[in-house]
């Protein structure tokens, strides 16, 4: 809860019994006692949210300031109450790729499980896909765009290098929301989901849109059959809403990273000669014009990393949740390779009929893959209220993380 002065009163730290002696890496988490909200009246209440929401000809209009919100309450739980997704119109099959590089449908499907992928074309943009997915999530959740407090855009390929969350929330109509981008490639959505729950628990935020969206087709070398067969473009979104602590839908989580693995999967910046010619005698100035290389991946090393670390991550998240693997209703992994998905399911002893996979139709859509697969499963009636989902994302960085969540 935030007072009219903008300062948060002291919070009482208490041990979280569920996490005691368990959790990711042995870390002990601290919870907060939930206190009753303090009612604010008069001018003080209007100061809970400051700053205007629109900019007109470079002048911020105070008259257009967001409507006052209710006092924030910390220590709340989180629940997923809506989801949505969107994909480009162009579908590229394995047979289509065989006309570009030396490959075949049989070769690709046997090694990856992928048969088709969607790719941005024409005037389509990743922002448009993100907006569509977000609107569908709001519609399912029956939440007005004006009631969204925060938008997290999880992407490594925004249309604008400076980020796309602000544009997305504006087009969705989230006039009272703040937004920012999270860059963690294929792990992005899981990190965004966990971040959203922490904003709710520690910041008193009520409604958060978490969008996973990527267009890796723009950074693929389409002459390299080792990578061009893998990636597609898409966007997926969920609406995370505050709830009472005893209804908390995030049961446990684990996030990790290891920069030593960056050499195995990356898309680094590169340079071309500067268009400027005069250096005034300084040999290293002006800087060269920046661009990005294509995606580079050591497939064997990434595979070994995933089949080892993903099950371990899920086991740690389950340990924090105090749940056995047998309590999982659905296993939902980042859709990178069917062999990785099968290996993780086998280690966790989860039968194939409890594994969610749409990899064959969309390929690896990076941060979009988990919310895209979740949305399809929910709308198909597979995932139902109360189902426990073990979700895990992994990829460039190297980063990986898992969350045990309950669908509302």
From TrEMBL:
It holds the Pfam family ACP_syn_III. Its EC number is 2.3.1.180. It is an enzyme of class 2 (transferase). It comes from the Eukaryota. Pathway: Lipid metabolism; fatty acid biosynthesis. GO terms for molecular function: 3-oxoacyl-[acyl-carrier-protein] synthase activity; beta-ketoacyl-acyl-carrier-protein synthase III activity. Keywords: Fatty acid biosynthesis, Fatty acid metabolism, Lipid biosynthesis, Lipid metabolism, Transferase. Residues 318-407 form the Beta-ketoacyl-[acyl-carrier-protein] synthase III C-terminal domain. The keyword Phosphoprotein does not apply. It catalyses: malonyl-[ACP] + acetyl-CoA + H(+) = 3-oxobutanoyl-[ACP] + CO2 + CoA. Residues 180-259 form the Beta-ketoacyl-[acyl-carrier-protein] synthase III N-terminal domain. GO terms for biological process: fatty acid elongation. Belongs to the thiolase-like superfamily. FabH family. PANTHER family: 3-OXOACYL-[ACYL-CARRIER-PROTEIN] SYNTHASE, BETA-KETOACYL-[ACYL-CARRIER-PROTEIN] SYNTHASE III, CHLOROPLASTIC. Catalyzes the condensation reaction of fatty acid synthesis by the addition to an acyl acceptor of two carbons from malonyl-ACP. KAS III catalyzes the first condensation reaction which initiates fatty acid synthesis and may therefore play a role in governing the total rate of fatty acid production. Possesses both acetoacetyl-ACP synthase and acetyl transacylase activities. This is beta-ketoacyl-[acyl-carrier-protein] synthase III. It comes from Oryza sativa subsp. japonica (Rice). The lineage of its organism: Eukaryota, Viridiplantae, Streptophyta, Embryophyta, Tracheophyta.
């Amino acid at each position: 809860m935030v007072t009219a002065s903008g300062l948060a009163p002291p919070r009482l730290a208490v041990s979280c019994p569920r996490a005691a002696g368990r959790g990711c890496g042995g870390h002990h988490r601290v919870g907060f006692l939930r206190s009753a909200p303090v009612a604010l009246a008069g001018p003080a209440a209007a100061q809970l949210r400051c700053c205007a929401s629109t900019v007109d000809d470079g002048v911020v209009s105070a008259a257009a300031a967001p409507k006052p919100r209710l006092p924030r309450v910390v220590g709340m739980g989180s629940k997923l109450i809506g989801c949505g997704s969107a994909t480009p119109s162009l579908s590229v099959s394995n047979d289509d790729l065989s006309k570009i590089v030396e490959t075949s449908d049989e070769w690709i499907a046997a090694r990856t499980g992928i048969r088709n992928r969607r790719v941005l074309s024409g005037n389509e943009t990743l922002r448009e896909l993100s907006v569509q997915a977000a609107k569908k999530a709001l519609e399912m959740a029956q939440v007005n765009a004006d009631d969204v407090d925060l938008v997290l855009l999880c992407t490594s390929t925004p249309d604008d290098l400076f980020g796309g969350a602000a544009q997305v929330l504006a087009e969705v109509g989230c006039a009272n929301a703040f937004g920012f981008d999270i860059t963690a490639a294929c792990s992005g959505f899981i990190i965004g989901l966990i971040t959203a729950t922490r904003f709710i628990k520690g910041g008193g935020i009520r409604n958060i849109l978490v969008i996973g969206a990527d267009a890796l087709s723009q950074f693929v070398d389409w002459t390299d059959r080792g990578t061009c067969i893998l990636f597609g473009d898409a966007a997926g979104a969920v609406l995370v809403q505050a709830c009472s602590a005893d209804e908390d839908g995030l049961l446990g989580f684990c996030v990790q990273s290891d920069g030593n693995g960056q050499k195995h999967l990356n898309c680094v910046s590169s340079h071309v000669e500067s268009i400027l010619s005069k250096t005034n005698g300084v040999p290293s100035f002006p800087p060269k014009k920046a661009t990005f290389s294509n995606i580079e991946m050591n497939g064997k090393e990434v595979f070994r990393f995933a089949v080892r670390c993903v099950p371990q991550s899920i086991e740690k998240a389950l340990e924090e949740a105090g749940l056995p693997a047998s309590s999982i209703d659905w296993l939902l992994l980042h859709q990178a390779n069917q062999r990785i998905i099968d290996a993780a399911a086998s280690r966790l002893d989860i039968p194939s009929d409890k594994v969610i996979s749409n990899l064959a139709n969309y390929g690896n859509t990076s941060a979009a893959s988990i919310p895209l697969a979740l949305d399809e499963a929910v709308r198909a009636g597979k995932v139902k209220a109360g189902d426990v989902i073990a979700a895990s994302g992994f990829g460039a960085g190297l980063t990986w993380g898992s969350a045990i969540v309950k669908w509302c």
